[in-house]
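name: query_chain
kind: protein
chains: 1
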Amino acid sequence: MISKQMDVNTTAIGVVGAGSWGTALANLLASQGFHVEHWVYEEDVRQQMATERVNERFLPGVRLSDNLHPSGDLVAVVSDKDLVLVVTPSHVTRQTMQRCGEAIGAQTVVVSASKGIENQTHLTMSGVLSEVIPGLSRQRLAVLTGPSFAKEVARQVPTVVTVASGSPETAAYVQQVFATPYFRVYTIEDMIGAELGASVKNVIAIAAGVIDGLGLGLNT
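structure:
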């Protein structure tokens, strides 16, 4: 059971991954006043984020909060944190988190915002994280997903997402951390359903586009 209190002055957050979605979510949290340490893989991107306070490669035109601290030290970013947000591409999530999994504390809540299914194992990202982070229980694990575009979240366009966890207490905690007036977060317990929905939605969208392009009509 998770019994964490959310306080912007004391809650320490680490974010792994600085693509468009990772940067948008990290900046959302930092803009609320949280101290956010952000692991950035690309050195040039990291330097630009630190000095110019922008990530022009992945999220152009968005000013980054001063509470967002880019870092190249993966272990330091996930150590001694109340919450670790994983936003790496699905095909590198395992190898990335294997490098730092042992540094994640026994009370840290881990949130996956990565979409996809691992090719070799057919595991969802929560399954991958459960394998590579020692002692990670389902009670400390959550999934954040929903119909959203990083650029619109960064522009504070009203957005609705879902946080799924086997623990209602963990889901409620993550909900409190992420919720803003423009970023509405609902909670459910079905992690697998949430992850599968996120994984297949692009496939469905592409198929729908092909059908529309072929002029096969709404029934098809």
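note: The chain has eight helices and eight strands.
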